[in-house]
Amino acid sequence: MSVLVYTESEGEKFKKAAFEVASYAKEVAAMLGTTVTAVSINGGSGSELGVYGVDKVLEVKNDKLSTFNAKAYADVIKQAVEKEQAKVVIVSSSADSKFLAPLLSVHLNAGYAPNVVALPEESSPFKVKRTAFSNKAFSITEITTDVKVVGLSNNAFGLKENAAAGASEAFEPTLSDSDFGIEVTNIDRATDKVSIADAEIVVSGGRGLKGPENWGMIEDLAEVLGAATACSKPVSDLGWRPHAEHVGQTGKPVASNLYIAIGVSGAIQHLAGINASKVKVVINNDPEAPFFKAADYGIVGDAFEVVPKLIEKLKEFKSNNA
After folding, report:
1. Please, what are the domains in the chain?
2. C-beta of residue 106 within 8 angstroms of C-beta of residue 89
3. For residues 133 and 265, what is the distance between their CA atoms, to the nearest angstrom?
């Protein structure tokens, strides 16, 4: 009757989201008076998850699952849920998890609440707080099905150490050929950069940078902050930056702790995609730019003057506080 979590990994290393859902699951399990079981598909060590409250880890080692496959992964998690008789399943709000969660819900005849930002308001009935209307509002959603699937928004709960056993157990689910109807032929991955999905800080640039040759200062600022780099839709459409960096309603959603927009005017689609970020900062030479109305902090000025000075001050601060 444990709470079950799907812990995402990449290259046999757990993603930050895995530790966040584990932290969240531990609190939910405490409310329900039960334990936490994690499903790890070609992931890291169970002891890593134990730090964040996982009591048992079902380790799936299978070369067929070396690349993400929503249908196959959903089937694996379904079998784990049935094995553990779990009534609450928790996943992240990554692109992969949002792809597999509806399939998993169908398998389990379960209600699914994505974009959850807090612990359940009540456990009986089971009510969760989630964002709505492109992060412009919150809704309290009651899940009435026997099994419940919760999608936790990235950076909504944080990492909370709460040591548990983290005992590993080999798990060999039954997989069929129908699980592998889609074949991944190639993956391009920037291994030397912080991914937008995992980043606590994102530095984003827009057309105000005037050209791809000026992107160096975005990368320099991101490096100082340990941040991911991103861009607006027009920038990716112009080919200045890869589409993988496009954030917004039509790109990747961002729920970072800090979002810095440089030379981004703030079209409604962009704002909708980054609205879940906790602190938003804009640097723009147009005081009428829409982004200023949504930002927590704004600097009206030329980015080519402001950003180098900001980088200089941040480096000075880090040097003095090393």
Report:
1. 3-180 (3.40.50.620), 201-320 (3.40.50.1220)
2. no
3. 21
pLDDT at 285 over 60: yes
Interatomic CA distance for residues 103 and 235, integer angstroms: 34
pLDDT tens digits, 47-57: 999 999 999 99
**Beta strand pairing call for 258-262 and 279-284:** parallel
The rounded percent of the chain whose pLDDT value lies above 90 is: 73
User: What is the Cα–Cα distance from 23 to 53, expressed in whole angstroms?
Assistant: 6
Q: What is the pTM of this model?
A: 0.83
Residues 203-254: tens digit of each pLDDT: 999 999 999 999 999 999 999 999 999 999 999 999 999 988 999 888 888 8
**Which residue, chain included where needed, has tokens 């917004």?**
248
DSSP letters of 122-164?
EETTEEEEEEETTTTEEEEEEE-SSSEEEEEPTTSS-------
Residues 6+ apart with CB under 8 A from 1: 34, 84, 85, 86, 87
The pLDDT value recorded for residue 8 is: 95
DSSP string across 238-279: TTSS-GGGBBSTTSB----SEEEEES----HHHHHHHTT-SE
Alpha helices in the chain (DSSP H): 16-32, 46-50, 70-84, 95-108, 216-225, 233-237, 268-274, 291-294, 303-320
Average pLDDT, the chain: 92
The helix/strand/coil state of 184 is coil
Q: What is the dihedral of CA 277, 137, 291, 236, to 10 degrees?
A: 60
Residue 30: which pLDDT band, with cuts at 50, 70 and 90? very high
